[in-house]
From TrEMBL:
InterPro entries: Peptidase_S54_rhomboid_dom (IPR022764), Rhomboid-like_sf (IPR035952). GO terms for cellular component: membrane. It comes from the Bacteria. The chain crosses the membrane at residues 179-204, 224-243, 255-274, 286-306, 318-339. It is found in: Membrane. GO terms for molecular function: serine-type endopeptidase activity. The keyword Transmembrane applies. It comes from Rohdeia mirabilis. Its main location: membrane. This is Rhomboid family protein.
Length: 340
């Protein structure tokens, strides 16, 4: 059940010499709710009160529908008005929203789509599982040989290696590092677009980063590790936030600040890759840079998910997570089918 409360709005100024007055809140029946139009959705009650006050000052009746958010324990507040007053309310609130943007520069961050725990658990579990399988040679398979990102093999058509190599690590320290940073940026991205969509985008951007790197490297180039996907997550995250800021009245520094921050992170942490063969070999900066660039490239379509509630639904998240698992499974199936 949704909690719905209605306010009739104030009486016009000058009525009997009295100021604005509002009726007490009361429940709105379903029949009345069907005759109302949803205007804005809020997670900040103070912002809701400001918008309602702007409507009340114009004598526009308004009501609030409270929607629960089980994933976060917080609530959303939907501001509605009667159909007959919808046009006037939209005009009034358009001015209010513009004033709010001018005053705040950037809107408060939206309520997280989910807390990202499910996706983070899946990421850690899959990476740890493949690490153990590779170390133990499970099922008598050469996981490293079949899955390493080899530029020569990829250019020869074995493009699945751009994905399988993301799951391979040289040692425990390499794995733990990528688990920590991958989980951190994956959870932050899941807040904006949901866990399923976030990890599908990270997987695809990581694979694209590896592919681009293979096209630029010598044919002898070989690499393993999730770091390309980690920096792809950084690119996705800062790209989505930068696009979100374009709709607000902010200067270039604040608009593109997230991308600059991502570039700083890339420069600071992007110099410690592990090459295939174990040990701390030459730094594969290209994989990190191109992973970041691939993330930026995919942040455009991903920003549409962040902006549209229907694309952040549970159904979409489940489907996206399923597609990510299918892509990973298909890549490993192809790797083993063609190896040896």
């Amino acid at each position: 059940m949704h909690d719905v409360h209605d306010h009739t709005g104030p009486e016009p100024y000058g009525a009997g010499g009295q100021g604005a007055r509002t009726a007490d809140a009361r429940a709105v029946g379903q029949g009345e709710l069907d005759e109302r139009v949803a205007l804005l959705e809020f997670t900040d009650r103070r912002a809701l009160d400001d918008a309602a006050l702007a409507l009340a000052a114009q004598g526009i009746a308004w009501s609030v529908v409270t929607l629960p958010r089980p994933a976060t324990g917080r609530h959303r507040f939907v501001l509605t008005v009667p159909v007959a007053q919808a046009d006037a309310a939209k005009v009034e609130l358009s001015g209010y929203v513009h004033e709010l943007k001018q005053r705040r520069g950037v809107e408060p961050l939206p309520d997280p789509v989910d807390m990202g725990s499910a996706g983070a658990f899946g990421y850690v579990a899959l990476m740890a599982l493949v690490f153990l399988c590779e170390r133990q040679g499970l099922f008598g398979l050469d996981w490293r040989g079949a899955g390493v990102n080899s530029a020569a093999a990829v250019l020869d058509g074995e493009v699945w290696r751009t994905v399988t190599s993301l799951f391979l690590h040289a040692d425990g320290a390499h794995l733990v590092s990528n688990l920590f940073f991958g989980t951190l940026f994956g959870v932050l991205l899941a807040h904006a677009v949901g866990s399923g969509v976030a990890w599908l985008a990270i997987l695809l951007a990581g694979g694209l980063g590896n592919l681009a790197n293979d096209l630029l490297q010598e044919s002898t180039h070989r690499s393993i590790g999730a770091s390309t996907a980690v920096f792809a997550a950084v690119g996705l995250l800062v790209g989505v936030e930068s696009i979100r800021r374009r709709s607000f009245s902010v200067g270039p520094a604040r608009r593109y600040g997230p991308i600059l921050l991502g570039a700083v992170l890339l420069a600071w942490f992007g110099g410690g890759n592990v090459q295939e063969g174990g040990g701390r070999g030459p730094v594969d900066v290209g994989a990190h840079v191109l992973g970041f660039v691939a993330g930026l490239a995919l942040s455009g379509p991903l920003a549409l998910v962040a902006a549209r509630a229907e694309l952040r639904s549970l159904r979409v998240q489940v489907v996206a997570a399923g597609v990510a698992l299918v892509v990973a499974a298909a890549a490993w199936t192809a790797a083993f089918a063609t190896w040896g």
